[in-house]
Each structure stands twice: as C-alpha cells, then as structure tokens.
C-alpha cells in the first residue's frame, strides 16, 4: 500500500537495526572498567599487604634496611606494572568515548531527515547498508573484505572490526582443536557467563578431558582433570557428568553412543558455535547478522505475487538472455529475442525480479496489500490479455513510429489496432 | 519544549555531558602518586641510617592508603560515567529486541554472498568485491571441499529452461568475468559523463541502439543532442580546444555527420536545433533558450544511462540489496509488532505465502501493479488470476466462480450480467 504516510520516517522506530551501534561501545566500556577494576584490586591488595608487613617487621626489627629497600622495590615494580595496564585501559576508554560520540552524531543526522524521499536519507541509508554488509562479513569471518569495505567507505569508526576479529580468532582456535584461548576468555568473563548460565566453560573442560582420554592410556591425568574441573559441575549438569565419567571405559573408536559423539571431531564445531553464541550474547549483539533481519523483512515488503509468476517470467525470458549475452561480441543471433525483451517502457526492473535477489526472495512470503495499487491509469486491455495504461501505449506507439491507430504490446511486441482495445475498470 | 526534542538530540546532549565526567585517567594519576611516594620512601630508607627505617616506613602508611582510596574513587567515577551512559541509552534509545528467534536467511548464505558480491560490483567497489569473492571461496573450500562441484545450493531453482544456468549461482562466475567487465565499463562511462565527456556514452548507445529502440528509449538521441549543445556553447563553457571541432562550427559539423540517423524519429527536435543556429548570438533570450539550459542535463543523462544499462543486463537500476535493506528498515517496526503479538501463539510469519500484516512502503518502492479483488479482498496470483468480465470490471477468478449461478453471474459493480466463458483472464 502506498500512501504519503509511508514515506515519512518514524524516528522512534527507524533505528532498530542500529541499536548495536551504540550498545556495543557501552558494553565494551563496561567490560573495560571491569578489567581495570580487577587489576586495581589485585595489585592494590598485594602492595597494601606487603607495605603493612614491611612496617611491622621493620618496627619489630625483623627486617633489615636492605629487606625494606627490596620490598619497596617490589612494590614499585608492581605499581609500575599496574600503571602500564591502567594506561591501556584508559586509552581504550578514551577511544570508546570518542567512538560513541561519533556514532551518536551519525545517528542524530537522521533526526533532520523527515521523509524517505529526502536526498540526505539516501546517503544515510546507503551508509547503513555498508554497515550491515560489514557486520555480515565480520560474522562470517570475511575479515579482510570487511576491513577493505570499511576503509574504502571511510567508516572504520562506525563498525566493530576489532571486536569481531578478536572473536573470530578464538573461534578459529576452537575449530583448529585448541581450547586454551577460549578458556582464557571464559576466565576474563567468569561472572557474566555465570549470570548468563552459559555452559561454555563446562563444555570446554569436558573437551580437555575427552582429549586426555583419547591420547593417554593410563587415564590418571584425565581423572585428575575431571576431579578438578568437571566435578564442580556435577550438580548443574548431572547427565553430562555421568556420561563423561563413563567415557573412561571407552576407546576413541567406540561405536557406542553417547561416547562416540563425545569423541567425534564435530564436537569442535559445536564448541565454536557455543562460544560465538556466548560472546554475542555477552555483548548484547543479535545472534545472527543484522543484514539477515533487514533482508527477510525487506524482501517480503517488496515482494509481490508477480515477482515469481510464470507470466512475468515469460516477459523476463528476454532479460535472462540479455544477461548471458552481455556486451560480448558474436552474440548476433541473440538480437532477435532481445529486441522485445524488457518489460515496460522507461521503468526499471523490480529489485525482487532482478537476478541478485530473485532466488533469495523465493523463500519469503509476499507483502500483504488490502488495496489495489496500479502504476498506470486509464487501463486498456489488448486482445492478447495484457493490460497497459493508455498513456504508456500512446508513448510507445509514437516512439516505435507506428501508423496512426496502431498500438504495440510493450512486452511481447505484438501490434494491434486501437479499436481492438477494451477499457478496463478497476474498482 | 523538552518533551518534543528528538530523542537522539537528547541523547547527543547527554553524551556530551558524560564526556566531561572523569575517566580512568584519574585513577592513573593517583597510581602515579603512589609510585612517587614509594620511590621517595625508598631513597630515604636507602640513604638514611638503619634506625630511621621504621619511622619512614610507618610514616608511609597513611599517605599510601589515602592514595589507594583515590585510585579507587577514580575507578568508581569511571564506572559511574559508564552507568550514566547506560541510563541515557535506556531513556533516549531504549532497547527493542529484534526478532531473532528465527533466521529465515540462515540457509541461504551462498545466495546472500552472491547478492553482496553483485552489489559491490555495481557500486564500483571492484577491489572489495574481488577480496570478498576470494575470501568466500577459500572459506567454502576449507569447510567443504566438494562444495564447489555441486555449485551453490537451492537446487529447486525451476527455471532451468531459461538460459540462466546454475553457473549464475557460483560466485566464481562473478570473478573477472562479463558482469564485472560490464560494470567496470558502466563506471568508466559514468565517470566520463561526470567529467562532461559524452563520447563513451554515445559509443555505447550506438552499439546498443537496436535494444534501446525496442525499449522505446531515446537515450542515443538525447546524448547526441546534448553533445551538439555542449559543442555549441563553445570553448568558454566546455573548456575544449578552440578549433574547427568546437563552437558553433563544430556543433554544425557534428550535426551533419551524426544527426542523419535520427531524422526519421526526431526530425522535429533536429529542426529546432538547426533553427537555433540563427539565434546564436543571443540564445539566452531566444525562443530556444530551453534547449540550451543544461544545468541538470548531464546528471539526467547519467541516471537514464544507468537505468538503460542495467535494464539491458536484466538488472534493476538501483542496487536491489540497497532497496531491500532500506525497505527492510522501513517495514521492520510492523514485523516486530506482529511477531510480538503472535509470539504466544507460536506461529511463524515466514511459513505462509503472504504476510499477515501490511508493511507500507513509499510509492517509489512499488514496482508492480497490485490488484486486490474488491470482493474477496485477496491479491490475485497465478492460481487466482484477475478476470475481466464483459462490462469491463475486474474480479479475482475464485470470486467469479463463487458469484456464478450456473454459468451466469451478475457484476457486483454494475447492473450488467454475463456468462462465465465471456470472462477473460488478464495480465496486469
């Protein structure tokens, strides 16, 4: 349905896809402060304790002058270390604040745009698409492409390459059979993961245990690992822990379930997915690319029954052959089928009918319309069943240099006499 | 009024305030202070006699303690600023969860990749496109070595009869191939147009004149006419060398050698251009001034060139990915409203043929005529096509069948009656 209201931008609801743009730096800031807090606490306590101890010992004459100097040196080293770490966090904080400010300004630009027809909207919306595409590339691990596009479009501040690159590194290490990097990440985000009730750490520990079982025959090491890292989960995941215990009795080539799938290498992919899920959730990011959301909603909104209709396809045959017959030489024989190819005069091809999206749109429902919407007025029916606007037919007849009283079908190229036409009434 | 202020404006102001709050750098300053205190004490202990050690170190306790408190305060300040940011976000940019319980696109990664690659090509991002295609291919190869053989998925593409082979689904076909070359060609022509050089565009239009004419496009003539006007304006405007190929003489010569082919179709326009020669000294006040006002002419021909160029390739003039993403952003609020309400029922909006709710789009985003049967209120489809009855009114086929009493029916909109076999299926 087309009305003028439809081209008005609803500011409260237009930035749904852009929420992560501001949410992510906020979450990253929070994480940054958390890490800073951890280091401050750790080093502060150590230095405080040592200072107190040194003072007591020095008063009780248990420590020599040299001992005191040594201890002070130790404290200084710690504080210098803390300063170095804190400075990086402070830098990161400044960077995130700068980024957030720039992003708010970018989103705010839209406040001045009130309709979709505004040229400023197009520029803004194009940049949004670029952002969505970069997000898509990053989530699929196409990091080089993402970087290239962001650089080319000069919008590195509006996309989160570092976050996703860090994520895909850990993901890749899991896919390559190493849990170490993921465990470090778990440790950094222990509290939050616990709040989310994430299973990730448990699964990683299980994987370590499975690998120990796979490689060593005296399974002492595996048993020790289980005691230390897996037993604490026995109340939370009783079934899994019992399976894990049973694994001791099976070799890696066992056909018996559930042990076979525990030994299976497909488990690494599962871990990688689990990690990605947890990582995205922790940062408040949607589980799949924003472009998917935009596309599934957009394809449906644009799609009409005509886009995949067989009748339309008749008229598209010509276009299809154009595509294969792109400007290359030696395509002379195609000329004939081309000449009556494209649909209507001066109109451009519908985005859903265009090759890029046609197959993709096959899987989505078409838009709901409660009112007829006709692109042309004064409709006339040709004897072959096709309907065109009077003005369209006249214009095409003139451009085709037809004799007076003749019209030509815009799609098929058939010629008819004007008195064969019938008026069509659409109510 | 504060309540009328756009939310993002409010958010921007809020962020500006938060930007002034103390950050972690404060904590770093206090850490520095502790380092100073400790090193001063160390020097003192090292240089003073043994008996002074205890006093120095005891004296150190309190200043260090308060410096540590200051470090902590600095941290708290930074945390408070962060919290303020969260509150500002919640107030002015409240989180609305996206419909992420179902990803209808997840199974079609290869199709999306192809759409992105084509989008990049048509945007003229050839380098990015080729990086992207390489990266996609190496990933697919790594994950599934046999993948490339079976080509892209979605084998149920049922237009095998058309000349599009399954190759179109393979990204490699986009690589260093026709499509890329044609888009590169298009970009070259557009760039030249921007630089006010019409010749490459004219050459292209001449090469494709048969197809353009079939489309009813006057592009070739429009370009040639603009070239005439452009030459006519002379070196002071067009900056071309001042010789016999430029100015009025050049224009006349251009017309002589090029306008012949347009005589049948555009005699009128050519006559006008010829007559304007007589007014050459004072075009601006002549009846022909309209013809010579070319402020927007170059951008106009550029956009009609893009449209024709893409149409001849069977592609839409505007990037479909751009249109779909924009339409998606416009339709998303409706989709979310709907999913929220139906969440409880557990129905999936993507499973039926037609959406259950309207997603209004601006007029410029409608590409097909939509016919909704005025009786059944259903959109017509291949299975239920629009039918015109003898009086000229149009109904959906199913409606017509229900309306029939025997073979006869009465039009719901006018007094006339008809019989079923006189109704004709039409293509709108």
Automatic annotation (TrEMBL), chain A:
Subcellular location(s) of the protein: Cytoplasm
Record-level GO BP terms: proteasome-mediated ubiquitin-dependent protein catabolic process
Disordered: annotated span: 306-343
Single GO term (MF): zinc ion binding
This protein's GO CC annotations: cytoplasm; GID complex; nucleus
Signal sequence interval, chain numbering: none
Family membership: Belongs to the FYV10 family.
Protein name: Podospora anserina S mat+ genomic DNA chromosome 7, supercontig 1
Comp. bias regions, Low complexity: 308-318
Function: Involved in the proteasome-dependent degradation of fructose-1,6-bisphosphatase.
CTLH domain location: 163-220
Pfam family, one: CTLH
Domain RING-Gid-type: 350-412
UniProt KW keywords: Coiled coil, Cytoplasm, Metal-binding, Zinc, Zinc-finger
Major localisation: cytoplasm
InterPro entries found in the cross-reference section: CRA_dom, CTLH/CRA, CTLH_C, Fyv10_fam, LisH, ZF_RING_GID
Zn finger region (RING-Gid-type): 350-412
Coiled coil: 65-92
TrEMBL record, chain B:
Residue ranges constituting the CTLH domain according to the UniProt record: 182-239
Alphabetized CDD domains for the sequence: dRING_Rmd5p-like
InterPro entries: CRA_dom, CTLH/CRA, CTLH_C, Fyv10_fam, LisH, Rmd5_dRing, ZF_RING_GID, Znf-RING_euk
Compartments where found: Cytoplasm
Keywords: Cytoplasm, Metal-binding, Zinc, Zinc-finger
GO molecular function: ubiquitin protein ligase activity; zinc ion binding
Keyword Zinc-finger part of the UniProt annotation: yes
Keyword RNA-binding: no
Residue ranges covered by zinc fingers (RING-Gid-type): 373-414
Transmembrane spans: none
Swiss-Prot/TrEMBL GO biological process terms: proteasome-mediated ubiquitin-dependent protein catabolic process
Main location: cytoplasm
Gene Ontology, cellular component aspect: cytoplasm; GID complex; nucleus
Annotated RING-Gid-type domain residues: 373-414
Classification via Pfam families: CTLH, zf-RING_UBOX
Domain of life: Eukaryota
Role: Involved in the proteasome-dependent degradation of fructose-1,6-bisphosphatase.
Family: Belongs to the RMD5/GID2 family.
Protein name: GID complex catalytic subunit 2
Organism taxonomic ancestry: Eukaryota, Fungi, Dikarya, Ascomycota, Pezizomycotina
